[in-house]
Amino acid sequence: MRCVLITGAAGFIGSHTSLLLLNAGYKLFLLDNFSNSSPISLNRIARLSKLSNNEVKERISIIKGDIRNLSLLERTFLTAKSQGEKITSVIHFAGLKAVGESFEKALDYWETNVGGTLTLLKAMEKNDCRTIVFSSSATVYGQSTQDSLIETDPVSPINPYGATKAAIERMLTNIAGCNSHTTPKQKSPSGWRIACLRYFNPAGAHPSGEIGEDPRNIPNNLFPLINQVGVGRRESLTIFGNDWPTIDGTGIRDYVHVMDIAEGHKAALDMLMLSEPICLILNLGTGKGTSVLELIEIFKLSTGIEIKYKFGPRRMGDSAISLANPKEALKYINWKSKRTLSDICRDGWNWQTSNPKGYDDAYSKD
Ligand SMILES: NC(=O)c1ccc[n+]([C@@H]2O[C@H](COP(=O)([O-])OP(=O)(O)OC[C@H]3O[C@@H](n4cnc5c(N)ncnc54)[C@H](O)[C@@H]3O)[C@@H](O)[C@H]2O)c1
Question: How far apart are CA 218 and CA 225, in angstroms?
Fold first, then answer.
């Protein structure tokens, strides 16, 4: 059985990807310190998978812990061995991800994101596991006003969060023995199999409404904020800037359904497992841009809910446009997004209305 360690598994993208891999027959070691998530998401993955209790016990091991803890990581690899399994790959989601917060807590971001990844890679190498899919981000590109971003575009992040993602990409291309960090596919002379997936704006939720995005603090991303305003958890939405050089002055982003992103991870992992040692750097986006005001309108058309908003100043570290050219992902891992913005709004709203207070809902059945 293919055995995968997933860090940050309880989080937004980690939970959706874990469910997908569970249903595809993988054995999963799910590691999270729950600093920005709830263990309830992992119970729900087990429930949604429709596996029997015994199968769940056999196929899921949950590890509460931190990626900066080397001995914990080593114990995880050993536990797999003691069960007659070998962790042969890692999907690495764990990390801090709020652009604004990364200015105030830059050291924490470097410690968790870069330091944590370094520790993870040491544990992997020691245990002869050299396959990793890493959550990178469109923020590595920095300021953009162009139509779409391609992997060969310059890496020049404009906030500490993006800088940590760019540094991790460099670390990964270095250990792969590759020269470039802007080439979509390179051979790895050192024998690693690596995919850095640069997500644009993941949004939406699993169509069941059982798992979704539930950040612990004020959401950093637009989509959960819209949902929280819609459900009455927040009074109104503040739009950061209406003077950007875009069609209506608000920022343009490339929203991609979280289930499409989950499928991108499976596609990348399956490709790495079959291929010679390589390092992939790929955009995961739709190639379609949507402004904040357009998203509010599409949300209203999809859900019937009107979102109250006001304009505020631009937010430090943001850019006018962030739009993917996703053609390399199609070429190298045969992935493209399938779901629409209406699907994102419908599924995200279904999650939010089924769980108005997220996983902490007092009426939660878990
Ligand atoms: N959601 C986005 O818009 C987006 C866009 C681009 C890239 N990413 C990246 O994708 C990854 C997953 O994002 P997400 O939206 O699911 O975020 P998330 O916060 O929901 O998930 C991250 C998970 O990592 C866990 N975690 C954090 N620090 C940890 C540590 N030191 N040890 C163990 N676990 C830890 C958190 O508890 C959380 O469950 C992150 O690395 C993020 O930077 C996200």
Answer: 8
The verdict on residue 366 lying in a domain is no
pLDDT of 362 > 70? The answer is no
The residue whose CA has the least distance to atom 18 of ligand 1 is 11
State which of 6, 13, 318 you would mutate to test the pocket of ligand 1, scoring each by most atoms of that ligand within 8 A of its C-beta. Answer: 13
211, part of any domain: yes
- For the stretch 195-215, pLDDT in tens is 999 999 999 999 999 999 998
Residue 365 in domain? no
Domain that holds residue 69: 3-360
Check which CATH number belongs to the domain holding 39 and give it: 3.40.50.720
Q: Would you call 11 helix, strand, or coil by DSSP?
A: coil
Q: What is the pLDDT of residue 365?
A: 59
- Take residue 47 and report the two structure tokens written for it: 């429930």
Query: Mutate which of 93, 132, 220, 253 to test ligand 1's pocket (most atoms within 8 Å of Cβ)?
Result: 93
Q: Which of 224, 259, 264, 255 is nearest to 341 (CA)?
A: 255
